[in-house]
Structure formats: structure tokens, C-alpha cells
Amino acid sequence: MRRLLLAGMLLLAPVAAQAKLPADPLASPMWQRLGGTLFGDDTVRFDDRVKVVFPGIAEDQHSFPVSVDARGIKGVRRIILFADLNPIPLAVDFTPEGAQPFLATRIKLDQRTPVRAAVQLEDGSWLVSGGWIDAAGGGCSAPPASRVKGDWAEHLGEVRGVALRGGDGTHVRLAFRHPMDTGFVANIPTYNLQDVALTGAGGKHYGTMRIEASVAEDPSITVITDAAVGEDIVLRGSDTNGIRYDGSIAVRAAPADAAVAAR
Amino acid sequence: MIGRRAVLAGLAGAAAAPAFAQPLAYRIMPEPVAAGLWVVRGADAPIAMANGGAIANITILATDAGTVLIDCGPSLRYGKALKAAAETLTGKPVVRVYLTHLHPDHVYGAAAFAPAVLAATPQLATLLKSEGPGFSDGMYRLLGDWMRGTEFTAPGTILSADSETFGTRRLRLLPLTGHSPADLAILDEATGTLIAGDLVFHDRAPSTPHADLAKWRAALTTLKALGHTRVVPGHGPIDPTPNAAIDQTRDWLDWVETTLRAAVAAGEDNVAAGNTPIPPRFGAMQAARYELQRSVSHLYPALEAELLPRIDTR
């Protein structure tokens, strides 16, 4: 009886508070509230051309790979990646500038949640897509492996990477060493890699991103640029304590026999 | 409270009522493989509510000295059902349960047996002490009531000899590593049957959460030289030949490693690597995509650390 009453109240309750947000196809309990926070008064639409791709299983809730591919959409000026039910929902806020509208990284999952991306067009409106993923709890509230091991401080500032020119552009893969503390573990405050910017020849911008602590420990990031073979891509990065993550990669031609074909 | 629940059940409809009354029950169906040797086939699928976690193959051996089991399933409920079915089948009590490795789909049924009956190599016993209880949360989350009452139970017998004999049946014990840090394969000399644990998969993609691929390949080389006639894999159908499943397992591991190394070298992200097309020769393999994506999670970070150069100015 109580359940029936509650259901009735929900049906009758006004939902006009966020009138501009369309109904959520994923029926997330956080959609209205999160949508209001992330998009304000901007127009929001759901659009499957925003391809949010992730594995069918969250094998490791501390490190769940996601890629966002909006290359089928013209005029993308910003991409945000978020997980509704994470305590830190936003993971990455990416402004591609001269890079293609594509982003891949690994995030933490604190429970079963929608994982989504939204891309903002030139007119300020947003296109949203995503899906649910089941996950064991605690991805955001377990200590990072490098904290357990104790060697996190020795590797701050380290970045590995490669930039390969292939059929669909130059894939720039960056693998940072950082504990990415969420602030939810044993009185260790939030501490994360925060700003990453890439530039190419002549100062051409290949994207800037703001990274939150919900990105997995030892963040890995892939972007796709139009950089030419031989061009130097310069990385400028910093964390929330001002530790620098600077470096550079010379673009090479992708090996012809690469087993993984361009998507 | 009772009233409200009854009302809710009523609302759900008469058809749903039996679901409340029916306790979860595993169907243990031993299939004859060789003289005095049966296998209870696991579902060739990931651990899921639909299969109660009964995804591993369990071997039952009849001997004059009693019934021998190799692995015991995912839960207390499974272990109890297995014990009853095996003892009915052979007419003799279970005197030995070998644990092949630490993974819960193989050893969490141990709670149904007396500790002295449960046997593991020293390496596995040590590993289970630290890692064994840790699988509990994940198993309860995935399997819910199937797991009721299940607590991890440590083996009470540590295996030191390279064989054990029950009546006239001699079992050769082969401690190896590769699928996990402590694997046990067993050769039933009476029938030439190799019970390989998860060192061998068959038409079901191998899983790699604790794998060392180089050691796994070495273990497969060892197994291939045993002179056995058939193989009971840890997952998938029985291989009536000596080498088909062993070769397939190696082929998959080689392909996964080659593919992931190439993906890392090509700067591919984890999602793209996990979505690499599965070659047609693995077309009949169950759970191939699922296990490839798991393997990306297990193996990719170390490969990136190995293969990608430092680019920072630190």
C-alpha cells in the first residue's frame, strides 16, 4: 500500500524544475540533478552518434576503460565524460581544439552506474549518450595500489607515451604515474592529475583537458590529432599540488603490420 | 509485515508464487568419461545468477578406497549437492577433494567437506591463506542466495608426494604454475586421463586474472609430454584427444599476448584493444570477447610500462 502511494506521488509530482532536460533513456536516479549541474540551461539531447564504448564487464572497478568517439559529429567543441553514481561524477572535461573529437581513458566505478559522455556543439547545446555498467563497489574508496606499495611519490611526474600516425590520424597515447587520490580513503585528501594540454608544431593546440580524481590511478589517455610524422607534440601537465607533467613525443608512422586496425 | 509481504506476493501474480517457494538447487549431472571417472560439466559461461557460479568442470573418481573429487564448485550449496551425487554414484564416501587452484568457482564448495579431506599443494595452501577469503564479497555480489552459508574453508591436507594411491588407482600429482601462481594438474594413470584444472581450457576462452603467460606456456609443454590419452579441461567440453585442447589453449594465449603487445605498441587504448576482432579459428570458443576484455584489464598496464618509452622531462 505504501509503495503504491509513493508511486502515485511520483507520477503527480511536478518535474518541470529541469524542463529542458529530456527524459533519461537510462532512467538514472541522478539524471535530473546531475543534468542541471552539468548543463545548466543549455539545450540537451540524447544522440547515439556520441559513441561511448566500454567493455561488457567491469573486471576492475578501480580501472574501467571508456572511449568517447564523436568523430561522426561536426563542430564538437567540448567533451565531458561522467558516471552518474560516482561520488565524483565528472571524470574528464576535454576541449579538443585542433584534436579530433575522440577521447579514451580509464575511470573508477564506485557502484553500478550509467557511464556517459556529453559533447557540446558550437551553438552551446549538448548531445549525450552512454549506458549502464555493473560494478563491484568501492572503486573510488579503496586505496590506490601505489599508496599500498608506498612508492607513489617516487614516480610523480613520470609519463610514458607514443604518437603514431595511422589511417585515421595520429593516435597520442599517454600513460601517467599518479595515485589519483579521491579524498575518500583514510584521511588522504584529494590529490590528482588535473590539467593536461598538448600542442604541436607552430603552437597548434591538440586539446586541453581538466581531469578529476575519478579517473583511475596511473591515468592513461588517448587522443587523436592530425599531427604529421616527425612533428613534435609537446605535453604540459600539472597535478593539484603543482607537480609538473611535461614532456614531448615525436610522431612516428604506425607500423604497417599493426594488429589492431583503425576503428 | 507478514501481511504486506503476502499482499505484494499476491499482486505479483499466481505464476510468480512458485519462485518464492522454490529453493535454489544445483543439478549435478555426472557424465561418464572413462572407467570409474565422471565429469560434472560446468556452464561454459561467466559466473552468473543463471548458472549459480557452476562454471568449472568437476571430476569424480571411483576407487576401492573411496570417492575422489577434483575441485568442488563455487558454493557450500554446490559442495553439498556434489558430495551427495558423487557418493550415490559410486556408493562410497568422499575421501579426498583435490583443489587445483585458488579461484572460487573451483574451491568455494570446500565448506561442504571435512578439512582433512581437502588437499592442496603447499604453494596453493599458502596462497589460499592470503587470497582465499578475499573472493567472498565478489561471489556473494554476483550470486546472492546461491552463496548462502558459504565461507571459505582452507585445506587440511598438504600434498608433499608426487602421487597418491587410492585402492589400486594411482594419481600422479603435477604442481605447475601459469594460470595462477599455484596450479595442480592430475594424471589418472588407470585411464590415461589428464585432469588439467584451469591450465587447459577447451572451446571456452582461457581467463587470465592471475596468469603468468610465459609460465603457463611452459606448463602446457610439460602437460603435452605426459603421454595421456584424453584431457578434462577446467572449463569446456572433454577433449577425447591428448593435445587438441592443450594446443588451443596455447594458441589463444599466444594470440592474446601478440595482440595486446601490438595494440600497446600502436598506441591503442584499452577499449579498442578489447574490441579487437576475434579470429575465425576461435569462432566456436565461448566467452571469447568477455575473456579478451578481462585480459586487457589484467595485462595492459604492465605491457604499457614495458613497451612505451618515457616521454617526460622529469
Automatic annotation (TrEMBL), chain A:
Keywords recorded for this protein, A-Z: Signal
Xref: Gene3D superfamilies: Immunoglobulins, SoxY domain
InterPro entries: Fuse-rel_SoxYZ, Ig-like_fold, Ig_E-set, SoxY, SoxY_sf
Keyword set includes Magnesium: no
Protein name: Quinoprotein dehydrogenase-associated SoxYZ-like carrier
SUPFAM superfamilies: E set domains (SSF81296)
Organism: Sphingomonas immobilis
Signal listed as a keyword: yes
Superkingdom as given in the UniProt entry: Bacteria
Position of the signal peptide: 1-19
Domain Ig-like SoxY: 38-140
Automatic annotation (TrEMBL), chain B:
Keywords: Signal
Record-linked SMART domains: Lactamase_B
PROSITE patterns in the cross-refs: TAT (PS51318)
CDD domains (UniProt xref): metallo-hydrolase-like_MBL-fold
Signal peptide coordinates: 1-21
UniProt superkingdom: Bacteria
Metallo-beta-lactamase domain mapped to chain residues: 55-235
Family: Belongs to the metallo-beta-lactamase superfamily. Class-B beta-lactamase family.
Name of the protein this chain belongs to: Quinoprotein relay system zinc metallohydrolase 1
Phylogenetic placement of the source organism: Bacteria, Pseudomonadati, Pseudomonadota, Alphaproteobacteria, Sphingomonadales
